[in-house]
Each structure stands twice: as structure tokens, then as C-alpha cells.
Structure of DNA-binding response regulator:
Amino acid sequence: MIRILLADDHHLVRTGFRVILETEDDLEVVGEAADGLQAVALAAQTAPDVVLMDVEMPGLDGLEATRRITAAGERPAVLILTTFDRDDYLFSALEAGASGFLLKNGTPEALIDAVRVLARGDALLAPELTRRVIATFARPGGAAARARGERLAELTPREHEVLVALAGGATNAEIAAALQLGEATVKTHVSRVLTKLSLRDRTQAVVFAYQHGVVTPGPPREGPGR
């Protein structure tokens, strides 16, 4: 059972999310928060697998609440849900440790799929959002022009290959096929890459790879960046 915490200052929105999610046998809403402070407290009390987090809430906003929740440990994963398609929200959410970012105008099916993706330890960005992340970090003279981080030297050649594949949005199955490895082996390599680089998930791996010039922009992949 996937445990979910809802954080949104609109009661009707939380009710709508609850109705959508609890139609699925494997999803359970374990709490509702009307502001960021409540979200942080309930995340500690209810131990959810996934938090659905609004951005603009009274008191403590969703971005700072995300930062506090993710700083406490590996779980829960945070999915930012907002009506505002703004780059500053997107990048602030990623920097705060969010594992996914969706707009509220999406479909119920997209929301359910996103929760399951995050619950199994992956990350999720819509393709157009992934392209914006890449465009921002690959601008000439920007973050991608900085020297590679010292942590990159800790990666083995195989782990470096895996990081490059992650930056391209490849799934574990696709990486396994490309490198002629078993999926279990790929999963181990991915885990080691994230640990050595002190990254939370695959989304942060994409950002890190472009920030530090590990890869350069190419044609965008079609499909979710996970």
C-alpha cells in the first residue's frame, strides 16, 4: 500500500485528490495538511511514501516545506503540484529535493501514475519540463560551464556511463540493453551513483550531469523523464 500525504490550502482540492487517489486499491491517503508547517509535522507523524505538495500556501510555503521534509531522510518523496507554470517554481522545487513536478491541469491518470513512479523510488518530470531544465543548465556561461565537481572523480568508468545514460532520461531497462548488463546490476550502479554524488534521485542526477558538463544538450527524448 502506498501511503500519501496531501498538502494544499484549499479543502476542495484536497478532497478532489483524495477521491481520485483512493479509487485505486494500492493508494491510501494518510493525512491532509492546509499549510507547510502542518505538512512538515504530518510527514513526521504519518510516515507517508509520497507527499503531494502545493507551492503557494499560508505561513510556510510548499518549497520550504519540501526542503524540510526531504532534509529529514530518504522518505517521503515529494511531488510538487501547482497551477503556476513558472521556471522559478520548477528549479526551486528541484533544489529543495522534490522528486517530481506536475501542473494541476493534468489528468487523474497522470496523477495516479506520478504517485506510483515516486513511490517506487524513481523521479518524474514531464518532457517539456525536462527540456527546460536542460536548457537552463546548458546555457553558455551558465552552470554547465563550471568545472566538474570533485565528486565525479569517485565514480568508476561504468558508473560514469550510467550517469550519462540517466542524464539522457534512460530507464533501467534501456541502460541494461545499451550496456549489456542485467537490470539488477544497473539498479545497483544507479544507487551507487546517487550515493557517491549525494543525490536524492534520478531527476537530481539529470540536473547534476548538465550542471557539471558531463553531457551536453541533444535532441529531447520523447516520454517522461524518470
Confidence is low (pLDDT under 50) at residues 140-148, 219-226. The CA atoms of residues 49 and 120 lie 9 Å apart.
